[in-house]
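Exercise (ungraded).
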Amino acid sequence: MAKKQRTAITPTRAEDYPQWYLNVIKAADLAENSEVRGCMVIKPWGYTIWENIQRELDEMFKDTGHVNAYFPLFIPKEYFEKEAQHVEGFAKECAIVTHTRLEDDGKGGLKVAGELTEPYIVRPTSETIIGASFAKWVNSYRDLPLLINQWANVVRWELRTRLFLRTTEFLWQEGHTVHATSEEAFEETYKMLGVYAEFAEKFLAIPVIKGEKTEGERFPGALNTFCIEAMMQDRKSLQSGTSHFLGQNFSRASNIRYLSKDGVEELAWTTSWGVSTRLVGALIMSHSDDDGLVLPPRVASAHIAIIPIYRNEEEHQQVLEYIAKITDALDNLRYHERKIRYRVDDRDLTGSDRSWQWIKKGMPIRLEIGPRDIAKNAVFMGRRDSQNKTALGWKDFTEKVCDILDEIQTNIYNKALAYREEHTRIINSKEKFYKFFTPKNQAKPEIHGGFVYAHWNGDSAIEAQIKEDLKVAIICIPLEGDKEPGRCIFTGEPSPRRVIFAKKY
Amino acid sequence: MAKKQRTAITPTRAEDYPQWYLNVIKAADLAENSEVRGCMVIKPWGYTIWENIQRELDEMFKDTGHVNAYFPLFIPKEYFEKEAQHVEGFAKECAIVTHTRLEDDGKGGLKVAGELTEPYIVRPTSETIIGASFAKWVNSYRDLPLLINQWANVVRWELRTRLFLRTTEFLWQEGHTVHATSEEAFEETYKMLGVYAEFAEKFLAIPVIKGEKTEGERFPGALNTFCIEAMMQDRKSLQSGTSHFLGQNFSRASNIRYLSKDGVEELAWTTSWGVSTRLVGALIMSHSDDDGLVLPPRVASAHIAIIPIYRNEEEHQQVLEYIAKITDALDNLRYHERKIRYRVDDRDLTGSDRSWQWIKKGMPIRLEIGPRDIAKNAVFMGRRDSQNKTALGWKDFTEKVCDILDEIQTNIYNKALAYREEHTRIINSKEKFYKFFTPKNQAKPEIHGGFVYAHWNGDSAIEAQIKEDLKVAIICIPLEGDKEPGRCIFTGEPSPRRVIFAKKY
């Protein structure tokens, strides 16, 4: 029997994937549950990832002509009553403010008081409240397009929550745009889906599939919902961003009208699109391994941990002086126009303990530096994306570090892409389909399944049946790739093209 | 009779200061009221100022060793019950979530449902919820100091609201730190007050006075509250940032304890400090004039408006090509490490109309460029901080633009400082004090008063009497400047030093 290798995270992915996920978060000190139902505390190492995501995405939004604004946290109940599907989709899970005062309850505690005549809903999404402003801002075709983004917190009273993936409160951005024509609004919906896909692949190192949601999975009130979908290491799909073509539904509900060039009053066309702190969950589940978090450098909380190794105070000072030369050089570098983020970890712990902590935290590069390295003008480098450790000259290191970071970024992406490709199938029969998605051991289901491209007749009853039988959903109708028609593998009826099936979050 | 000069904003500051303030906001398109009680919508031109404030302050926080994190929006009611003064200070004005579902009310509308057993308070400030996390994070002296900041929205159910200055929901940052000793916590409280003062003066171009609040004006639960105070153009003081030394009150309430080097369990010492979107209000009221907003370049939404002037399409194209050369040059410049933010305003409006819009929006520099400027390789420049317009070579302009922006920044600061100095008095008698703060015309009080340095015996009854008589408060006990003792001008009793009196926001 092969000796089982010890890993920093137990259970491993293969042993218990959901628990592994939570343990990676804990070991990397990314976030924790709070005493507030379903709400998480995002700790500094995790929040920094979100800050980096924000900074990069914000730049992409601005480069595509969008500006930021801020709208109220609270939405009057009546706004929800204006768009029927929308309220149906969100009313079941919201936080409602009904009172405005706490008073002494006469028993040493506090009771609520100051009841509102009309309650407010804590925004689960902001189409209706932003629509109320847009109705005032838009008068003529000259005011269009209106391209607004908001960075905000939103609240959905979810029953089952999970750190980063699904929490009662989460952080996100929501883009809201208004256009004169259906075509322009559609173009915007696509464009922002493209921005999300580019961001996911280039910064998060997550390969994604751009697709359209089926009717049942649409955003409540949208005409079309587009998404980017990514395969996690348990082969489930995680919806990582959505872009909605809202048609005239919300402009009708909010009364967003403009005077056209011809002097005719027209209903406007709107879109909305969003990504959230769920992206941090996507990043964790895409790249981490049984030793903990693996961070892609472009959004990593930090790039380099520098660990001084010494036996006495004299050596300690020598090592710190030597490190100062290296950090001075790093301070002058720019990695894709950003500063190199390093941490000198001079804590009173063994070199091995410190090194393992940074491995678990996903630090792309570790440098261990002791007297022997000084003697050789070298650094001893460990990389998170491989097991190898290398000695190289310190000047050599500072000259190459940006290339090394890019190489790590590419490796991480390629690894995720290879994993997805390995677990993607084209399946042409119902039998093979059911077999592919059925675990071998029902008692303790192992990681199984993957992405399946299969023909489907477009019937939502079939979609529902598969979901009931296998917990498998149509994650999207892919926008790119093969578009040849065929026969539905469940009914034999005509299918315009293959769609993608998978288990999903 | 002198001919009255026309201004872009009516009423002027002298005519009706509060209305002038609202009209400046409207003319500059900074923000508007929403239908949600007391909540504002921050429009793009206003939000960009806040983004710039965030970016610069965030860098200063990080340079002083702080990291960002995120804590829940909701606070369990019981957390408020732990710190008596704190609940007293905030319980009267809070939004309370009591339900989690909307249901069909059978009359075509919606009713609230899903009542919570224990209600949640929407955070008015986060000491208690952050304290609950800190209690878990802090175990040993090795975990200290803990230096955390949060950028967030908070809600206080204010009765009287005013755009940016006092709104039900507002955006802010709240720093929360934990220390092993009282001295260290005090040092942190001072340090962050210093960061705020430096930021206000260097970036917002607002001269501020650092001081300590009197007992009655302290943050509920704090041992000492320090503040920066700025004089607005109606000579009232606006508290623009606060830093609180919380002693052990909140660590006791939240049970934040650590094991000292000597192995003894100790209660920790905490601080908190914050600034909010109120700073945008401070900026507006400090610098704007009767033609609208005046933006200090370091936080300006944009730096330069470029206005093409032409008579026909041929000239139009020539002008746009010429402008492209200038913007290419601007793209390569950095103003204090940031990109130069410019707008080419090619709207189909007269040059004068466009120019006035940018004046009202506070744009530091306007360039009007037409065929005659091209012939001379020149640009025609208007500055917001003066009435003068100058022609200069376009290369000359791009070489000097950063210096010009700095000069504008300095001018704006100096003007505000001169105004404050002009309206600051040392007063040594009660009679003169009362006269100084009494308007000449009670029916339509003109802008009057200012900052008064006067001796006070420290009695809060006297403080209350002055507030009742004159609506004048002790804005702070200044930390810097003259500290000679004297006699209280109201009672003749000893006074350790002069304090500052003013009307305030």
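Further reading is listed at the end of the chapter. For now, observe: Chain B touches chain A through 60 residues (CB under 8 Å). The mean pLDDT of chain B is 95.
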